[in-house]
Amino acid sequence: MKKVIGIFGSPRPDGNSDILLNQALQGAMAGGASVERIMIRNLQIAPCNSCNACFEKGVCAIGDDMQKVYPQLVAADSILVASPVYFMGVTAQLKALIDRCQSFWAQKYILKLPIREDKRIARGFFIATAARSNGDNLFAGAVKTMKSFFHVLDARYTGDMLCSELEEKGAVHERDGLLQQAFNAGRQMFKV
Ligand SMILES: Cc1cc2nc3c(=O)[nH]c(=O)nc-3n(C[C@H](O)[C@H](O)[C@H](O)COP(=O)(O)O)c2cc1C
């Protein structure tokens, strides 16, 4: 059975990105995958402090909840991440998790070790929400960050859902088609 992890990047419970990611995960389950959820807002994840300890063995020296997340990222066949756009990027909570993946960077580029022992390439899919209307590269910063995150994890960026004009909590419910689109993205995950 394929393993899918959903990473919830918003600090706002049951907000627009949560709703869309839950839809995508429902779709993944309907497609036969097993699903795990990582709710970053419930975890203690310190930012990377650039101590470079990971350069020795590819292992992060900070003893917090990220230590539970590392094996989940490695075990995943597919990683679905959702975040609101905050000041043209992803949330600080999600960025902390991403920066802590510097240990994977060290593993790959300094120690020349594979991310997964079987050298399997995972899949990566990004869901973003934002209040403004789409223009002025509203999602460009967040997408660049996510591409870099998936790249270091040996995950192919298979696509995204970039949803503008969603401000209030739950606004996504009033938008035709978005919930179904997210469900379909999860369901199709292993077909792209
Ligand atoms: C700190 C903060 C920064 C934000 N920055 C932006 C922004 O740069 N552009 C934008 O369109 N919306 C911005 N928003 C609005 C959120 O992206 C939007 O409300 C989104 O739908 C929230 O998703 P959520 O319900 O999953 O938390 C910001 C909201 C907050 C709280």
Description of the structure:
By secondary structure, this protein is α/β, with parallel strands linked by helices. The chain has one domain (3-191): Flavodoxin domain (Rossmann fold, 3-Layer(aba) Sandwich). The chain has seven helices and five strands, in the order E-H-E-H-H-E-H-H-E-H-E-H. It has helices at 16-30, 54-57, 66-75, 92-99, 102-110, 140-152, 178-187, and strands at 3-8, 34-39, 78-84, 122-129, 155-163. It has a five-stranded parallel sheet, with helices on both faces. Helix 1 links the parallel strand 1 and strand 2 (34-39). It binds flavin mononucleotide.
Number of alpha- plus pi-helical segments: 7
The coarse overall form would be globular
The proportion of residues in beta strands is 15-25%
SSE string, helix = H, strand = E? EHEHHEHHEHEH
Cα radius of gyration in angstroms: 16 Å
Q: For the largest sheet, list the strands in their spatial order.
A: 2-1-3-4-5
Task: Assign the CATH topology.
Answer: Rossmann fold
Indicate the structural class.
alpha/beta
| The CATH class | Alpha Beta
| The CATH homologous superfamily | Flavodoxin domain
CATH architecture: 3-Layer(aba) Sandwich
In the predicted model, the low-confidence regions spanning at least 5 consecutive residues are: none
Mean pLDDT equals 97
Terminal-residue CA separation: 17 Å
Ligands present: flavin mononucleotide
- Number of domains as seen in the coordinates: 1
Give the tally of β-strands: 5
